[in-house]
Write the structure tokens for this entry.
Amino acid sequence: MADMQGTITNIASVSCSVDTAEGVYKCTARRRLTDSDTGETKPLAVGDRVKLELTGAGEGVVTEVLPRRTKLSRAQPRDHRTEHVIVANVDQVLIVSSVRRPPLRVGLIDRYIIAAEAEGLEPIICINKIDLAQPGDEHETVSQLYRELGFSVLFTSATEDVGIESLRGVLRDKSTVLAGHSGVGKSSLINALQPGLELKIAPIGWRGTHCTSSVSLLKLDGGGYVVDTPGIREFGLWDIERRDVAQFFPRIWELSRECHMPDCTHVHEPECAVKAAVESGELPRLRYKSYVEIMESIERWEEPRRTDVDRPHEQVSQSKRRLSRRTRKQGLRRRWQEDLEEPQ
Ligand SMILES: Nc1nc2c(ncn2[C@@H]2O[C@H](COP(=O)(O)OP(=O)(O)OP(=O)(O)O)[C@@H](O)[C@H]2O)c(=O)[nH]1
Ligand SMILES: [Mg+2]
Ligand SMILES: [Zn+2]
């Protein structure tokens, strides 16, 4: 029988759901795709196009992951040298934040923008819970800043039905991942877009985190797909070096030509045109602060890393090879858990 193909819509600890032309199959992965010999990066991601062989009614085995068109990755929270592919084959990243509860965090927006642009994905900024906004709140300056930089910024309220129609327009016929901190309203927005889905959302006043516990791909009735993700606390940039960062901050990049030091990083050097522009008010302090935070976080992690995971079973770094088989197995199991549940 010819190989069947499908798309992974959800991944649980030992199996995944694969959507095919014939329906949804619950699949395990071929041993070589999950064995610890493959290295510790989880080899399958939601959105992956895969080949599968059927093993029973509604059941199958994933035999191959087809090359990824795009991916959104971050560094593993506890192992910054390892890539964690959040989702594969999407076109856009809807960066969701909220006016308050939790408060707006520009640093995270910038990290997502960098991760998206580095992969050729379109970043769209969505500021939710606009119903909670009060005059003078930061979201006004923040949205103006990003609009001036050429990004789309949407204001929404999932509970009061504000901006949902515009959001629907932006998502139509595209494949979009919703990303952002826990509790900003990602699942609520998807429920507002498509009421029948009834995704689990955090009850009001809930003090826990990570109401959504796994990544899932959902089809929109109006055309297109959305991917709901668990909220994250930390977004470590993957495969971005310090010298790359300024390129994602166009004004800083331009100003750097006027810096005194040829390799000025604009963090601690004297006679820095970027710092001077911050002092004179020409460059928003918010942007500069975010730039410095990102630079500092990369400094800590800049070590040899494992690269692409399109062929994860062939991508085992030297240091990992030296680890005992037992340690690798434990590590793999632990990371599967971490990936799925995002505990901190
Ligand atoms: N006031 C207000 N509350 C909202 C809005 N959107 C979501 N909420 C509330 O915010 C809380 C968190 O919403 P969720 O949709 O679970 O947030 P999430 O981003 O999916 O969170 P995780 O799944 O943990 O990442 C819930 O109590 C929602 O009812 C909104 O637009 N306005
Ligand atoms: Mg959620
Ligand atoms: Zn400088």
